[in-house]
Amino acid sequence: MTLGSMSIIVSHVNVTEKFSSDYDNSTYAYEKMGNYVTGVPEAPALQTFATIYRPIHGYLAAIVCALGVLANVLNIIVLTRKNMISSTNIILTGLAISDGLTMAFCFPFALQTYVLYGPTSSVERDTLSNARYTLTYAIVSVILHSISIWLTVTLAVFRYVFIRFPRIGAYYCNIKRAKAAVVIVSIVVTVVCIPNSISYEFRSELRNESNTSQTEGVVWYIDVRNGTHGDIVLAKFNFWIQAVIVKLLPCLLLTVFSVLLVRTMQDVENRRKKMMTKNSVADGETHPIGSSTTSKRSRRSQRTTRMLLIVVILFLVTETPQGIMSLLNGLIEDFFHNIYTPLGELLEILTLLNNGINFVLYCSMSKQFRDTFIYIFCGCFPKVVERRKMHTVTTTMVTEGL
Fold it and tell me: Which of 245 and 287 is assigned the larger pLDDT?
């Protein structure tokens, strides 16, 4: 297994890492991505953790994927209702589609690679048909998850412009441009991932099976093409594309816009309080005309921004470590095998959890999302809907929409 193979799928689920421990003694030499600046020794604690966690990873991944697909389907259904249509929700719908498809492709892979035949390489598990699906998953998952990352960046940009420059945001961050942004991100990311998609090839080797009725068989797996100089150049080029454009650059942008969003939220809130105070003094009233409606809209906007900020921060928490480690894979010798590979499955489950958690965030932080969800899925229970309406009216009267 070449060192380049780790960089191909590092943006989501590192498929080839599953084979690295099984094929360390194969005849395929590891190719260097460049001139390493240093090396890293093996970490026994990480190896021990990987050995303990690997048998249960497949079961956790399958459960998370099943629930995540359901959650993202619910997100799509709710966010596409007429009363929910907005530029922000258009982007969130695209995010739900890409996250849901990623988890849908991961589910069969988790079952085949971990649950049905166990995490250890075998003739029964590593068939040619399984290798073909693994190749499909390796390509599609990178594209879909990369789309999710850049849609999150788009979401942060839209929200920042909308609250920092309201007039400009109302014109440029409308529904039509949100749809165009989703399409453009999907197309550009797919094109950028073309080098990754053409970098794989199937390989096989004879393997003796002492614990089955077969004495030997052919084990199939995927690896990075490295037969020619052009293949090696492509692998190196693709490594830096995945490390920088797919991981580090969006993480940097998300960090910048997260800070800008927080500062802008504080500025908007301070300006709102000052305006309300000035209006109250000028009019001689505690609650000047129109201030209640304006305040309510401002609070609603603030809650929406906080919710989206949490979505962005969760992406940062899961993606930034992978981005840093993907870069270190090319700078530090043996970093991939000694550090990244033992942590690969942990990073995978964290990413899957992030892909499926947005439904919980929307339900817990967006009253409009909750109301729409209840209306759609509890419509067959009129008493539940009626109680929800009464609660909504009471809450509006007492708390002014909070």
Answer: 245
